[in-house]
Amino acid sequence: MRQRSTYILIGVGNLLIGIGFIMLLLHGLKWPYIWATFVGNACGIVWSYMVLRPYMNHIQSFSVVAVGKIVGVYLFSHAVAFIVIHPWVYHGISIWAPDWDPKLQLDVVLFLEASVFSMLSIVLEKFILFPKDVETYKKPPLVSPAPVPEQEV
Which residues cross the membrane (predicted)? Predict the structure, then answer.
């Protein structure tokens, strides 16, 4: 249970760091939306990797496959959250709250998309990067252990 709560806290930290950098780049430095989201999420990913490294026993060593899996998970999550669903989320917010300032609408859309990004990447990480850890969360079978034969002294 402790490992799961630590993993969730790291995911929340990833969300906050990513959205913070996105807002800084988008509003503060006036970067284009797609680049601000990409770089902001990359900052969150680097932070997550640094914090998660002690928990990643089976991918601690550098390998092309491990790095490819990590990059693939985050690129897929970014594409789904910030490119594929962006028009739908933005359209839904503009219908739901047409009176809002466009900047506020964009910020709400970014927060919702960043939340989708974090949740999707957590799920994909769990099943692609940490498949052995998923198995440890399964409940043990309800079968009693085999009896141990008594030894004569």
Answer: 7-27, 33-52, 64-88, 108-129
**Contact by Cβ (8 Å): 88, 112:** no
| Euclidean distance between the first and the last CA atom of the chain, given in angstroms as a whole number | 42
Is 42:14 a contact under the CB 8 Å cutoff?
A: no
CA dist 35 and 153 (Å) reads 74
What pLDDT digit, counting tens, does each position of 56-73 carry? 655 555 567 777 888 888
What Rg do the C-alpha atoms of the chain give, in angstroms?
Answer: 21
Is this structure's pTM higher than 0.70?
Answer: no
- The residue among 54, 116, 58, 61 whose CA lies nearest residue 83 is 116
Residues 92-108: tens digit of each pLDDT? 888 988 888 888 888 88
Alpha-helical regions (H) of 24-63: 33-52
